[in-house]
């Protein structure tokens, strides 16, 4: 089995794959240990799977896994990651099927991993995309870097190479639009990330499969990633903090109103009274929710510990 597995998620990209796949396979001699290609057919309605089989010199070098329905790029990559772990590939490369990623850059990305990096992104310094897409992507990258506090210029690039331990660690987190945040998640997990400038081409055939809604979904998934990696094992620090702030502010407002009432003023018709009550009740709910989440985390960790102990006992 070749040491490098190239994952190509594809949705209705038969025309592009007919040209792209031979170019990828041609890079095999330049990659240490050789390479194999796995196309994940994400519920395509064209003859994507047939094209892969047609150009394949053999299943050990090029094969296709087909999903019955379109599940999105993250789910397709999760299937590919699982396959990479099962086959024992030491390096995994991701490439888009539209032909915009240049296969000749693939050996450079794999070589960069040999320099002590765990995940390397092919940064598209010169984009061959429409004006709107170029500028929205630039805004997205700046926002991601600021919110995630991770160095990088092209988080959204689908051209990446990573070690097998990164793949195994991140595979369970691949859903929604999480494929956009592989670099962020790897960095927060303690892996070393880097970028290599690569050539970027215009799409060979067809049109993009992503609409404007991807930016909103991507932003929401960024918040999800930030929460999971920062508070997955300590949710009460977030929800309890918000609750304590609400309780404290609401309590101070109620004390102020109490002082006014004791001095003879009327407080029943003041908006501050309603705001104070809402802050106290909302803060109490956040605080209790944080404690409930901590119980869930404790239960999950206890179950994992039991499973690990059972596995250790069976091995003994």
From TrEMBL:
Spans through the membrane: 238-260, 272-293
Organism name: Cellulomonas wangsupingiae
Protein's recorded name: Glycosyltransferase family 2 protein
Glycosyltransferase 2-like domain segment(s): 6-168
Family the entry assigns: Belongs to the glycosyltransferase 2 family.
CDD domains: DPM1_like_bac (cd04187)
Listed InterPro entries: Glyco_trans_2-like, Glycosyltransferase_2, Nucleotide-diphossugar_trans
One Pfam family matching this protein: Glycos_transf_2
Keywords for the protein's UniProt record, in alphabetical order: Cell membrane, Glycosyltransferase, Lipopolysaccharide biosynthesis, Membrane, Transferase, Transmembrane, Transmembrane helix
């Amino acid at each position: 089995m070749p040491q490098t597995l190239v994952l190509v998620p594809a949705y209705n990209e038969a025309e592009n794959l007919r040209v792209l796949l031979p170019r990828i396979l041609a890079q095999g001699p330049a990659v240490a240990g050789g390479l194999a290609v796995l196309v994940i057919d994400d519920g395509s309605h064209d003859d994507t799977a047939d094209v892969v089989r047609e150009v394949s010199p053999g299943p050990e070098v090029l094969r296709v896994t087909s999903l019955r329905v379109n599940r999105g790029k993250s789910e397709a990559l999760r299937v590919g990651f699982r396959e990479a772990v099962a086959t024992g590939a030491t390096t995994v490369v991701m490439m888009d099927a539209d032909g915009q990623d240049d296969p000749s850059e693939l050996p450079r990305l794999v070589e960069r991993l040999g320099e002590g990096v765990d995940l390397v992104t092919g940064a598209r310094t010169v984009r061959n995309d429409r004006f709107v897409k170029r500028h929205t992507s630039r805004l997205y990258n700046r926002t991601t870097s600021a919110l995630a506090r991770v160095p990088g210029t092209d988080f959204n690039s689908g051209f990446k190479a990573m070690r097998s331990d990164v793949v195994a660690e991140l595979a369970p987190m691949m859903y929604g639009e999480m494929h956009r945040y592989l670099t962020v998640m790897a960095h927060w997990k303690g892996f070393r990330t880097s970028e290599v400038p690569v050539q970027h081409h215009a799409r060979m055939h067809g049109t993009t499969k992503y609409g404007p809604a991807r930016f909103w979904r991507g932003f929401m998934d960024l918040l999800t990633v930030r929460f999971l990696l920062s508070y997955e094992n300590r949710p009460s620090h977030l929800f309890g903090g918000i609750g304590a702030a609400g309780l404290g502010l609401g309590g101070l407002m109620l004390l102020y109103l109490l002082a006014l009432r004791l001095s003879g003023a009327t407080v029943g018709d003041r908006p501050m009274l309603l705001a104070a009550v809402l802050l106290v009740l909302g803060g109490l709910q956040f605080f209790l929710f944080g404690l409930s989440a901590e119980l869930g985390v404790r239960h999950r960790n206890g179950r994992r510990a039991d499973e690990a102990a059972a596995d250790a006992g069976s091995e003994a």
